[in-house]
Amino acid sequence: MQRNRSQGWTHAKLSGHKNEENIKNLLQENIQFQYDFLSKIDKKDAKIVQIQIGGLHESQVSGVLDKPTKSKTDLKIKFLSGENVKISIKKSLSGQVYFVGAENFISIFEKHFYKISNEVKRSIRLFWAAAEDAKQIISEFADKSNVKIYNSQIKHKSLNANTLKNYDENLYIGLLSWFKQNLEQITKLSFSMGAASDESEWSDFIWYINTLGENSVNEIFDIQKLSLDVKNLQNQVFYGNTNGGTTIQLPFGFVQWHQAKMQFHHNFDKIKKITS
């Protein structure tokens, strides 16, 4: 069955919540499933007293931009000891993990971590459709030999890597360097924190599991460990070569322009390789 984009998002949302419900039921009713899960997070002797999932009507949480936001956590588990574990569930082996406008990304990053230089802010805005003079720069510095790629940049008001380099090579180099130097923070932001201000909403683990028969993977990754592991993989950060460079490849996936925002993607195979 072919789905259009709207139908695809609706299916993904509904099937995602069905997957969460199945996981909750399995944890409550299947002793072996629960034991396997606890073993994966190194808590074999822990006793679960409460399981909570987001559901279709998940409530929003406090955000660092002084407005409500969605939590990255899909599953919260409370133990008899009083400890809580928060988990981000991925039913697909790849796909969107964080979707944010350039200006909000800059503000959220700065609220959570530290200031971004004006030069890097400028390059982020140019690459992700948040610079008022983008069309003017594209018309002057873009390669016009490929009309499709040129028109796409004009339409999206977003410079690709080649155009950014033609316009200002320092911005081109600086943007990539910034991503390399902030892999730990970007990983935490994408998988754990988002715009949530309260640490109780930050995910501790990524759980790749699909109870709907679409794949058979069942693996859990510690986000803190992943965030530290990626710091040593700066050689895996580079501009993609499609359409003049519209993505930045990352150790855990990539980030691209999508609907005038920054769309970060996760990839199970990449993450598995990092943590193996």
Task: Choose one word for the global shape.
Answer: elongated
Taken in chain order, the helices and strands follow as: HHEEEEHHHHHHHEEHEEEEH
Number of strands: 10
Quaternary organization: single chain
Give the low-pLDDT segments: none
Description:
The chain is of the alpha+beta class and 276 residues long. Helix content is 43%, strand content 20%. It is built from eleven helices and ten strands. It has helices at 5-29, 31-40, 102-112, 118-127, 134-141, 147-156, 161-167, 169-181, 183-193, 223-229, 268-275, and strands at residues 48-53, 75-79, 84-90, 94-100, 205-209, 218-222, 238-239, 247-250, 253-258, 261-267. A five-stranded mixed beta sheet has the order 1-2-3-5-6, with helices on both faces. β7 and β8 form a beta hairpin. α7 crosses α8. The longest helix is centred in the first third of the chain and has 25 residues, at 5-29.
Per-chain topology:
Elements: H1 5-29, H2 31-40, E1 48-53, E2 75-79, E3 84-90, E4 94-100, H3 102-112, H4 118-127, H5 134-141, H6 147-156, H7 161-167, H8 169-181, H9 183-193, E5 205-209, E6 218-222, H10 223-229, E7 238-239, E8 247-250, E9 253-258, E10 261-267, H11 268-275
Parallel strand pairs: 3-5
Antiparallel strand pairs: 1-2, 2-3, 4-10, 5-6, 7-8, 8-9, 9-10
Helix pairs in contact: 1-2, 4-8, 5-6, 5-7, 7-8, 9-10
